[in-house]
Amino acid sequence: MAQITTSQSKMNTDLKDYSAQHEEKTGPYADDLEVDALIVGAGFAGIFMLKTLRDRGYKSVIFEAGNDTGGTWSNYPTYDELRRYFDHVDKVLGIKKDCAFNTVVVGARFDTNSGRWTISTADGRTTKARFLAARRYIPDWPGIDRFKGVIHHSSFWPDTEIDVKNKRCAIIGTGASGVQMVQAWGPQAGHVTVFQRTPNLAVPMRRRRLTVAEQDRAKVFYPELFRLRETSFAGFHYDWLEKNTFDDTPEQRKATYERAWKDGGFRYWVSIYKDNLFNAEANEASYSFWAEKTRARIDDPHKRDLLAPLQMPHFFGVKRPCLEYDYFDQFSRPTVDVVDINKNAIKGLVETGIILEDGTHHDFDVIAVATGFDIVTGVMTQLGLESITGTKLKDEWVSGAQTYLGTTVSGYPNMFHLYGVHGPTLLCNGPSAVEVQGRWIADMIDKMERGNIKSINPKAEASAAWKEHIVEINDKTLFPTTRSTYMGGGVPGKKVEPMCYAGGLPAYKVEIRQAMDSMEGFEIAWKWR
């Protein structure tokens, strides 16, 4: 169908590396395509949005930079289970027939007269749409291009499996991708060295494969579980305890922690005491329990102190904890090591490996750069979006992101985003946040159709008030104490500010619905009047 024009042997660092020239010129690949809604990205959010809008009669397509459904997930290591899930979704819902893959959006401009967006892609196509729904950080180390081995960034992972058997492997970064790779490569590689700046305060996944019979019995409860998710703070089927940490005795606290730890998942993050992310002393108590449990799994004293220090590196949970099943156990292998780059940073790369600031040299065959990416805002600033006054979103947001309701941006009429900046996003179960916002977007489009509304544009003052609201809620938590992805701190030089709505999914749902009912925060252009 398409020919990728860039080499997969180098480390891809830009979405344009995935652009392709398409032989097919029909359907979602047609030039001068006209649709009701164009959706950027075929991940959870994009697929939910496509299905919802199609079901309501809107002609909609997805432009996806990758070569398959799954969005960001499709290029991450160890994604096999998610791949099977997205394939099943396509089999049931027929998603791919309305998707253009290896299609990278590089520009979008709104025409106030026609009330339509014109979207440009890297391969030269243009598409017109009434509605636009939008859904990586590469360190500047000297010598990256000189390294003679295999090197990839975790968010641009190749389709082909990387052979690490008997290889000397480096994993730079201990975020979600770093944790996954340690678990996958630890048992296989000749040697793994993990370069860590900050310990990952990961919690047990407790994964268990359900039998078909168990799944069939559970299906009767699905409607209630789906409803229950949207009543909890973080969009799960469990929630905070309705009491504070020190309302309990030390014995009761330990029993509570043990129960959440044993049950696994994100329970130890958002299903213990309700003051855990708001009160410093309460948080210290939860960290002490985490450290006790985790340190017991690491044999080597030096590695133990780096991976699970007695003194917490930051408040527990203010950086999203990853789920792990044997991450910490891998470091008890003599072939898995950890290097602290907080005090002795990476200076650069040479042909054979990595050099630290003190001159220490590490030789490698394979390097995985798991340093994350420009999360939340980056997915929008890379699209080449241009406002109705001619400014670029990427320039506007240098001094800080501005949205209204975490779904719209002033100056960009009829553009909606979900699972992005100023929504629940990273503080929430992804699919739960996507469904709440996706239904809101579809309902807003329906409301515009019924009311003969050509376009809606958030008022600048409404956006400013929403930003103040986001900051006010966030300041009541412990999140501002740490430079994290929640605070836009994943990329050096980026403004540190709250990225997410920290009031919980139920409160967010109420607020955006009230705003839709009143429409006071929008400038409205009518089809006729």
Structural write-up:
The protein contains 15 helices and 22 strands. The protein is α/β, with parallel strands linked by helices and 529 residues long. The strands form six sheets. Strands 3, 4, 5, 6, 7, 8, 19 and 20 form an eight-stranded mixed beta sheet that branches. It is globular and about 75 Å long. The model is unreliable at 1-9 (pLDDT under 50). Helices cover 29% and strands 19% of the residues. α1 (44-55) packs parallel to α13 (430-450). The protein has helices at 44-55, 80-93, 176-185, 212-218, 222-229, 250-263, 267-270, 280-295, 301-307, 327-330, 378-381, 393-396, 430-450, 460-474, 505-518; strands at 2-4, 20-22, 33-40, 60-63, 99-100, 105-111, 116-121, 126-134, 150-153, 168-172, 191-196, 203-204, 323-324, 336-340, 346-350, 353-356, 361-363, 366-369, 385-386, 415-417, 453-458, 522-526. A hairpin with a 2-residue loop joins β15 and β16 (353-356). The chain folds into three domains: 2-137 and 375-526, 3-Layer(bba) Sandwich (FAD/NAD(P)-binding domain), CATH 3.50.50.60; 138-200 and 322-370, 3-Layer(bba) Sandwich (FAD/NAD(P)-binding domain); 203-321, no CATH class.
